[in-house]
Amino acid sequence: MEAIRCSVESWAEFGLSNSANVKILLAGTAVLFCSGSDILLFSSKDKRLSAVLQFDTPVTHLAFSARRYIYVLCEKDGIYCTSLPQQSRPPSPPVVDQDPVLQRVAEDSILLKDPTIDSFLLAEDLLITVSREEATWTLDLYRVSDGSSSKPVSLRKLAEHRVSAINTAQPHGKTEVNVDGKDSWPVLSCIYPSGGASFPGDLSGYPGCFLLEPVLFTLLFGVDAALVNSPVVLLGLPDGRLCYLPLRIPTPSAPGQRAGPRVLHSLEQPVAFIGTSSVATETGGCLPRSLVAIGQTGRVLLVTANEGGGQGKVERFSEFSIRGPVVCAYLSSSHVYYSTATDLLSLKLNAPSASSSSSDQPGPPDPPTPTPISLNVCGVIAMTLASSDLTEGGAVELLALSRRGRLQKIRLPQGTTGGSVARLPSSLAGQRVKDLLAGIGNVWERASALKNTVQHRNKSLRLLNQVLNICSLMSNQKAEKQACDHQQPINCHGVTSWSCVLQNDSLMLTCTLENNSAFTLEHGWSLCVHIYHMSGSFTAERENPSRTYTFPVQKLSPGQKLDVTLPLGSSHSLSLPLTVHCSLMFSMCSLGSPEDPNFPENTGIQPSSLPIRQSNCICLHLNTLTVDLLDALHFDASMSLSSVSKQPPAPLDAVHTLLDSRGSVRGDPTGQGQRSSPYSAVVKLSVELLRASLKAPGVDAGAGEPWASVSALRWLLNGCPGARGLVEALQMPAVTGRCPAGHTARMTIKEVTLSDVSIEGPLTVLEILIESFSMATVCGLHYAVLRRIQVLPRLIQTCHKPHMQLGEDHMRRAMQRAEALYKALQVALVPTALGVSPSSIRTSHRLLSIYQQLRENPLLIL
């Protein structure tokens, strides 16, 4: 099938509530079409919606008279008659976005109250209606005349005719059903003899009214109708019959004569359109020489007047089929334009001329079956002619309404109104094909690029929505964790271990990211681990030697874990304690456009290697870990503090010896190996607190039970990488270990009885003794033990806390000792407060003395 390209101009787009009974017609510069229970008036001049008429029931048919009255058929009501809404004179210049006039049509505008009317036709001063009652089709004729001021139009019934109904698809239904599943309605058309005086007006103002040449008019409808120039009503029924009724022939008085509609032909399928086709004459006019009827499934009936040999002219009925279904059709000159909802096609009717046959032949040959031409417009469900006259060049313009409610103007090229379609010469056909293929390739590339962009945006929106859900979840869980101790759904915990890297022992930290939420951590998320020294030491450049490690998360589904390992330092360069902040970071750069050259398509790129701004990231804090000296000790059951202290120190190099002689080496002020007794620190802990916190069966308050000390030591060493395998085999409440710097330390736990603490009697407590010849080692282990003991009060928030009444003498001595140490600390810091640079050695000795007094007489932790 051939195809041509026509120009389509979209005017506006409306929402169609029901596309089954959409009608469209042109009334001057106003375009009227129905949508559900509304009639919309669109101004073709201003290209805007000018008015909306609202009815109570759905509109099925409408017509427009020369006196600017709108006739509307509504379901279950009848025919309304109302005038066009009167708009106020627009200002100069006119306002384009002026709101349309909204008018609700009341029931008092009903011209003919009849709920059984299926369709109607307006022909000058005649109103023809067709209705269905049981097994009969009723055709009523009314005279339309001017009425009173309250009701400007009145009706007078002229005649009533009946036709027996034939139900082929639905025996008990009101109407037949077409191929689209919609109800089929009867089609009305009025035919006038051309050149007669019965209808002097212009037929373009009355849709459904057509002219037909007198010869064919006489052959089809009889001599009586032709003599009186009577218009004939053609009725196309859903069962396929074409019935006709002359309107101005008097009713016969004899009982044997027939009156009423007669059957002209049967298409054997619901009728979709009835009209007449014209051919161009030598004088430049058009002569309507054919009667055309089209069925809904594509059968076409063409009735012409041909030479019948010696009998003169006779009517000839020709039938052929076209591609259906026929949703709507319009006839212009010799061309039929019809829509199948998927395509708009043009069909040229090949009506034979009068000289096409000779008198010696019994009948003319059959004309060739016409071939429809595709116009490449889809979705058309209603159409009409855009103007009564052809445009310059002979092109046809149609107003069409699509299934989606788009009102558009279709301009057909001149080739569709003539005979043949212009074709390209063979020399240019190859180049045209190449151009079309190149255009298809360009369109495909643009469509692929747009598809990739849409997919990337959808992925970015989905990922951003997931990020917002995770942020909301973490924020709510953080608030709940402050109220009660609950673990976050996404958390991170760490474990230390020793590993040999490049023949050096290094302390490694393994962080485990657990996703216990219902969301998946995808590309863009990173686990950030920030490590810094708690002592606040600085390098030579006065910078804090903190480190940040970033590990990208490729995909972490709910219930999965991610393990990452990072070095904390070697045994010679490790400075403890360390604080480790674990956070979850999302980079907004991962939501960037794929066309951006800076966008990291390779998911293996570390985000830490890219310049990341704080404003372009979303950071969620997870956990804070602390790595102290107790996590880095090497424990050995055969090691003793005395044996290690008697070992000769390692030989020093010349530089270190020179600095040591000048007092420039930072280290132990007293010098390790020169003391006869080690440094020590004591921590006293209530057995009742430890038992209530850990609920250990061996931790008992009973006197003389060594298992309380052993259980306390096992609890302190639990999780230490250097004590693995030693905790289960530990039988004595003492252990010796070696710190990363090489110094040895010993930790001993024993039970002691204090008689001057409580007024209730002697109190059994655990005394944790820490000893080492290195002051830094003692301080580090003392901090590690105190940090672990601080967790115990949080573990017994819901338990019964032990109640104890302390003695006044014990409290008085503790207060006096604390005041004395506070005064000594103020005296040691006086030079610094006055801005005087004190001697570092003297200040160090004073602070060391205060520190020893604090550790030798500690407060009891209850």
Features:
862 residues; alpha+beta; Immunoglobulin-like; 5-stranded mixed β-sheet; 12 helices; rod-shaped; Faap100; Fanconi anemia core complex-associated protein 100
Task: Describe what this molecule looks like in 3D.
With about 850 residues, the chain is α+β, with helices and mostly antiparallel strands. The two termini are about 100 Å apart. Strands 38-40-41-42-39-43 form a six-stranded mixed beta sheet. A five-stranded mixed beta sheet has the order 2-3-4-5-9, with no helix packed on it. It has twelve helices and 43 strands. Among the domains are: about 490-595 and about 605-625, Immunoglobulins (Immunoglobulin-like), CATH 2.60.40; about 640-650 and about 670-805, no CATH class. About 20% of the residues lie in helices and about 35% in strands. The longest helix has about 60 residues, at about 425-485.
Can I get a quick summary?
This protein is α+β, with helices and mostly antiparallel strands and 862 residues long. It has twelve helices and 43 strands. Helix content is 19%, strand content 36%.
